[in-house]
């Protein structure tokens, strides 16, 4: 795993990167929880996602969004964070040799940003959204969802309750 500094839209972004194990290997971008609630790329869930994709042969990148730790800028209520995610995805794809698949995964606020990025980037083949805060953000923008993936939350999650996810996704289902 290498440490990177990526020249992002609002200044440098601190990142960790594992190169793809072979040319054309799949890529995964991992997004962390809400920065104002202590979310960083060092969060245990974010690290677990990173290691999971790494074990399955992906080139993987996780980073601190603007204003977190050594990343410059300041929290932008999701707008700037989505811009950062799109920029970092371009950066990741630029470092790889024609990846066969591109995945995005996020936890909590990072899951919400992941889902928004998914809707804007046709090259994304799959996603994993862990505990998206459906009680705080509307997910109706997911209709129609352009890629396969999973939206997961635990039944003991205090922020993302299964009934909130179910209610949010009933607006998406046709």
Entry keywords:
single chain; 174 residues; alpha/beta; Rossmann fold; seven-stranded mixed sheet; 4 helices; 29% helix
What report would you give on this structure?
It is globular and about 40 Å long. The protein contains four helices and seven strands. The protein has helices spanning 44-55, 79-95, 109-120, 162-170, and strands spanning 2-8, 11-18, 27-31, 59-63, 102-107, 126-130, 148-152. The protein has a single domain (2-170), classed as Rossmann fold (3-Layer(aba) Sandwich). Strands 1-2-4-3-5-6-7 form a seven-stranded mixed sheet, sandwiched between helices. By secondary structure, the protein is α/β, with parallel strands linked by helices.
Q: H/E element string?
A: EEEHEHEHEEH
Average pLDDT works out at: 92
Q: Enumerate the strands of the largest sheet in spatial order, edge to edge or round the barrel.
A: 1-2-4-3-5-6-7
For the record, the CATH architecture stands as: 3-Layer(aba) Sandwich
Radius of gyration: 15 Å
Distance from N terminus to C terminus (CA atoms, Å) equals 42 Å
- Characterize the main sheet: 7 strands, mixed
The shape, in one word, is globular
CATH third-level topology: Rossmann fold
Can you tell me the CATH superfamily?
A: Alpha/Beta hydrolase fold, catalytic domain
Low-confidence stretches: none
Number of helices: 4
CATH class: Alpha Beta
Give the total of domains.
Answer: 1
Question: Which structural class should the secondary elements be placed in?
Answer: alpha/beta
What is the chains' assembly state? single chain
User: What is the helix fraction of residues, given as a range?
Assistant: 25-40%
Query: Hey, roughly how much beta strand do the residues contain?
Result: 15-25%
What's the total number of strands? 7
């Amino acid at each position: 795993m290498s440490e990177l500094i990526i020249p992002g839209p609002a200044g440098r972004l601190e990142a960790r990167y594992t190169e793809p194990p072979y040319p054309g290997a799949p890529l995964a971008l991992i997004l962390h929880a809400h920065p104002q609630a202590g979310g960083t790329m060092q969060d245990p869930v974010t690290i677990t996602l990173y290691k999971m994709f790494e074990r399955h042969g992906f080139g993987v990148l996780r980073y601190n969004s603007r204003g977190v730790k050594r990343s410059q800028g300041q929290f932008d209520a999701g707008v700037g964070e989505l811009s950062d995610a799109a920029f970092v995805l371009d950066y990741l794809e630029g470092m790889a040799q024609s990846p066969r698949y591109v995945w995005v995964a996020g936890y909590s606020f990072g899951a919400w940003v992941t889902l928004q990025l998914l809707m804007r980037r046709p090259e994304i083949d799959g996603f994993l959204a862990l505990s998206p805060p459906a009680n705080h953000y509307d997910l109706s923008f997911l209709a129609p969802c352009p890629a396969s993936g999973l939206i997961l939350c635990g039944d003991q999650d205090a922020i993302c309750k299964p009934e909130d996810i179910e209610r949010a996704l009933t607006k998406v289902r046709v």
